[in-house]
């Protein structure tokens, strides 16, 4: 298991990469994308539960036979449905008779996971809305295969309980912490837009949750844009109040992703993992207390905070509709207009038609 110092190092380097990304446009970012993989593999190597063979094959390798196929899944501990599926072991039971081995690789965050997907170290991943936009803009060969309707109430802009900030308009000239390239990045953009503010009207502090919370509590930043369950934990134990959540601003979808090469060669495995994920998602929706208890052990967050988070999130593994694709395209266009990504992209071009 990687320690906090390693995680902080990875996060700070990732933030530096993000800064260079804005300055050097697409070609430089593509190079840094591969550099970032090394950071992801550091996380993977430090995780005793990760099979080292997950870094072996190329995305252009020959089509596997039925007896040597693998399904290599990237996940985060906070990716509830995938983490539950890993814990339950039902996917392995389903695929073992078919001669398919399942391998799991843990990552610190979505961007690192998509770097691994880009170079063929994993075959399947789950992230929030924003990391796939950045990855596609860097020419990663990702494919959207399904989505999860997490919901806008599961992310928010927080301020301290005693803060004089009462409206989003009051953020003008203030410093706002967020994890760069995460789903809440778009929430911040939309909230500012709705309040008549420009993105340049605030100062952003790009911090991962582990750094953002102490900065928030100590008053080093004026507001924090964060997602559940970290949002709920801040509400219950860090004297945070919600300035605005994403309910009426953003959809806040999660996305299940693969690569074009993998889905072309293994459409049956994609269908089978989605089927198991649907079963797991249905169970999670019906058993919020059990989910909170499981995540408490995994994340080190108290059960009451996790139970609060469970009351405002959605579950499901659903096919990509035109409406969902249009919403993701809107995020991509917004980030391009803000020069957060270096070129326009077409989300519809990377949606699995299976």
How would you describe this protein?
By secondary structure, the chain is α/β, with parallel strands linked by helices. The protein has 2 domains: 4-150 and 253-350, Periplasmic binding protein-like II (D-Maltodextrin-Binding Protein, domain 2, 3-Layer(aba) Sandwich); 153-245, Periplasmic binding protein-like II (D-Maltodextrin-Binding Protein, domain 2, 3-Layer(aba) Sandwich). 47% of the residues lie in helices and 15% in strands. The protein contains 13 helices and 10 strands. The protein has helices at 4-45, 80-88, 90-95, 110-118, 130-137, 183-194, 209-218, 230-237, 260-265, 267-286, 288-299, 303-310, 322-337, and strands spanning 70-75, 101-106, 125-127, 142-148, 155-160, 175-178, 203-206, 223-227, 240-245, 254-259. The strands form 3 sheets. It has a 5-stranded mixed sheet, with helices on both faces. Strands 3-10-4 form a 3-stranded antiparallel sheet. The chain has a two-stranded parallel sheet with strand order 1-2. Helix 6 (183-194) links the parallel strand 6 (175-178) and strand 7. Helix 8 (230-237) packs across helix 12 and helix 11 (288-299) packs across helix 12 (303-310). It starts with a helix and ends in a 17-residue tail after the last helix. Residues 1-65 have low confidence and may be disordered.
């Amino acid at each position: 298991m990687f320690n906090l110092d390693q995680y902080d190092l990875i996060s700070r380097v990732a933030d530096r990469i993000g800064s260079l990304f804005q300055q050097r446009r697409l070609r430089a970012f593509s190079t840094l994308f591969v550099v970032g993989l090394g950071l992801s593999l550091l996380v993977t190597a430090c995780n005793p539960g990760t099979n080292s063979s997950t870094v072996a094959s190329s995305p252009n390798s020959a089509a596997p036979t039925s007896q040597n196929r693998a399904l290599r899944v990237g996940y985060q501990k906070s990716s509830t449905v995938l983490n539950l599926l890993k814990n339950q072991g039902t996917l392995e039971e389903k695929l073992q008779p078919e001669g398919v081995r399942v391998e799991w690789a843990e990552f610190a965050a979505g961007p690192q996971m998509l770097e691994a997907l880009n170079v063929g170290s994993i075959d399947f991943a789950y992230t929030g809305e924003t990391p796939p936009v950045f990855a596609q803009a860097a020419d990663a060969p990702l494919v959207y295969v399904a989505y999860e309707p997490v919901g806008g109430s599961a992310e928010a802009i927080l301020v301290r309980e005693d803060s004089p900030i009462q409206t989003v308009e009051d953020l003008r000239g203030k410093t706002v912490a967020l994890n760069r390239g995460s789903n809440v990045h778009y929430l911040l953009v939309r909230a500012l837009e709705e309040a008549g503010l420009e993105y340049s009207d605030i100062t952003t502090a790009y911090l991962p949750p582990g750094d953002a919370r102490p900065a928030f509590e100590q008053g080093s930043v004026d507001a924090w844009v964060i997602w559940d369950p970290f949002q709920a934990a801040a509400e219950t134990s860090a004297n945070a109040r919600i300035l605005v959540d994403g309910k009426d601003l953003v959809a806040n979808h999660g996305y299940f992703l693969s690569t074009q090469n993998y889905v072309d060669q293994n459409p049956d495995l994609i269908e089978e993992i989605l089927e198991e994920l649907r079963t797991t998602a249905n169970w999670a929706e019906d058993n919020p207390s059990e989910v909170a208890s499981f995540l408490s052990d995994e994340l080190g967050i108290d059960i009451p905070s996790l139970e609060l988070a469970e009351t405002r999130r959605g579950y499901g593994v659903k096919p990509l509709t035109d409406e969902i694709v249009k919403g993701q395209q809107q995020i991509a266009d917004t980030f391009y207009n803000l020069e957060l990504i270096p070129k326009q992209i077409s989300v519809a071009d990377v949606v699995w038609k299976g």
